[in-house]
Amino acid sequence: MSKTIKGILMAGLVGLSVSVSALTLKSDAPRTYIVKKGDTLWDISERFTNDPWEWPEIWYQNEQIRNPHLIFPGDEIGLVMIDGQARVTVTRRGDASRTVKLSPGTVKMQPSVRVEPIESAIPAIPQDAISSFLREHRVVEPMVLATAPHVLSGEDDRLLMGAGGKVYARGQFDGEVAAAYGIFRKGQVYQDPETEEILGLEATDIGMGRIIDQQGDIVTVELERTNQQVAIGDLLLPTEDRELLANYYPKPPEAAVNGQILAVSGGVNQVGQYDVVVLNRGTRDGLSPGSVLMIMKAGSIVYDRVAEEKVRLPDERAGSLMVFRAYDKMSYGLIMRATRPLRVGDKVQSPDL
After folding, report:
1. Per CATH, which fold does 248-349 belong to?
2. What pLDDT, in 10s, does the model give residues 304-328?
3. pLDDT at 217 over 70
4. pLDDT over 70 (residue 272)
5. CA–CA separation, 182 vs 228, rounded Å?
6. d(CA 99, CA 83)
7. How many CA atoms lie within 13 A of 322 on its CB side?
8. In this predicted structure, what is the pLDDT of residue 246?
9. Each residue of 156-208: pLDDT tens digit?
10. What global pTM score does this model have?
11. What does 265-319 look like in DSSP terms, one character per residue?
12. How far apart are CA 209 and CA 238, in angstroms?
C-alpha cells in the first residue's frame, strides 16, 4: 500500500488542525456524519476523501469499540486527532451509549454493550447491484466441471425439472456426500487476450437441491430452489460460503496491477455505472475483495502533420471500479464511477500507477 505523501493539508476542519500527512482529506470534509440506512462504505469514504481507496489509511479502528471495522446505520462517524493526524472513526454508536472524549492525541470510549447483527452493517458497495450476481455465478477451473456429477434423469423421465421435483444425478463423490448441492450449467470460458491463458470457466447457477438418497454413484436430489428449469447434463457442485460484503474496505491492490475488462454482465459491450465487469487479473496479481482500480481509456490515434506520422495520445482516466469477488486468475468488479463511455477492452490499473 502506497504511503507517499500526497500533500500538505492546510484547511481547518471545525477546530481540528490538519498537518502534513500521507492522507488526502477533503477541505470540506464534515466533522461528523450520521450513517443512514442505504449508505455504503464507498459513499461515506467519498465524504471525507476524493480517493476512496485511501480509506484504510484514514480509518482509525478504535479497539475500545465493539466491531470497530463495521459501521451500522445510526452510528456517528467523525474526525479525531490521532498522533497529530486527522483520522476518521466511529465517534458514537447509534444507541447513543458510547461517547468519544477527546484530548490531545487520544480517543477514550465509555464502556457499553451493543447487540447488532453483523449482517446489518453497511456494505462496501450497493448490495442490490451484485447480490444476484454473487448467488448466480461462480468461476471454476475447467477440470472441476469436467469431473462434476451430472443430472442423469428427471423424475418420471422428465427432461426439464423445477423446484419441488426430483432428479437423479451420477458421478464420483469424493468422501462423504454433502447434504446440499448447487446445480450449475457450463457458461462462458474466459481467456486472457494477451497470453491466451484460460483464466476460468463461468458456471451459471440453475438452482439448489438436497440429497435424499444414494445408491452407489447415483444420488436422488430433491430440488429446493430453481432459477430456471433443470435439464439433463446440468452439473452438481458443493455449496460455498459467500463473503460478508460489509467486511472489507475500499483499498488499493496489494501489488501494481495492469489489466483489462474482459466482459460485462448481460453480454453487451457498453459499460456504465453499477455494471458488473470481468477482469483478467485475480488474487495471484494482488487483487482481493475491496481492491479499487482505475479505468483507463486508450488515447486516440492522430496524425502528426509536422512529423508526418501517426501517434497515439496518452491514456486518460475514465472511471473507477471495486473488486467484489476475486479468483486466482480473474475477478468480478463493480463500476463505481464512469466519467466517459466505457466498453469491453478498456484498461484497468492500480490507483497509484
Report:
1. Thrombin, subunit H (2.40.10)
2. 999 999 998 888 999 999 999 999 9
3. yes
4. yes
5. 13
6. 20
7. 27
8. 61
9. 878 788 888 999 999 987 667 777 899 999 988 999 998 999 999 999 889 99
10. 0.77
11. TTS-SEE-TT-EEEES--GGGT--TTBEEEEEEPPPEEEETTTTEEEEPPPEEEE
12. 10
Residue type, 322: M
C-alpha cell read off for 71: 459501521
Question: Taking all residues of the chain, what is their mean pLDDT, rounded to a whole number?
Answer: 82
Contact 89, 101 (CB under 8 A): no
Residue 51 CA to residue 53 CA, distance in Å, equals: 5
Residue bearing cell 467523525: 78
Tell me if 32 sits within 8 A of 75, measured CB to CB.
Answer: no
Please give the grid coordinates belonging to residue 267: 453480454
- Confidence (pLDDT) at 97: 47
Whether 210 and 222 have beta carbons less than 8 Å apart is answered as yes
From the list 229, 201, 109, 211, the residue with the least C-alpha distance to 168 is 211
Cell numbers for 124:
462496501
- 105 CB contacts (<8 Å, ≥6 apart)? 81, 82, 83, 84
Cβ contact 201:186 at 8 Å: yes
- Band the pLDDT of 241: cuts 50, 70, 90: low
Kindly calculate the radius of gyration of the chain based on its CA atoms and give it in whole angstroms. 25
Cα–Cα distance measured from residue 268 to residue 279, given in angstroms and rounded to the nearest whole number: 15
Q: In the block, which residue shows the cell 486527532?
A: 81
| Sequence spans of domains, the chain | 7-120, 133-238, 248-349
Q: Are 71 and 77 in contact (CB under 8 A)?
A: yes
Q: 195: helix, coil or strand?
A: coil
Q: What are phi and psi of 99, to 5 degrees?
A: -125, 135
Sign of the alpha-carbon torsion through 36, 38, 42, 46: negative
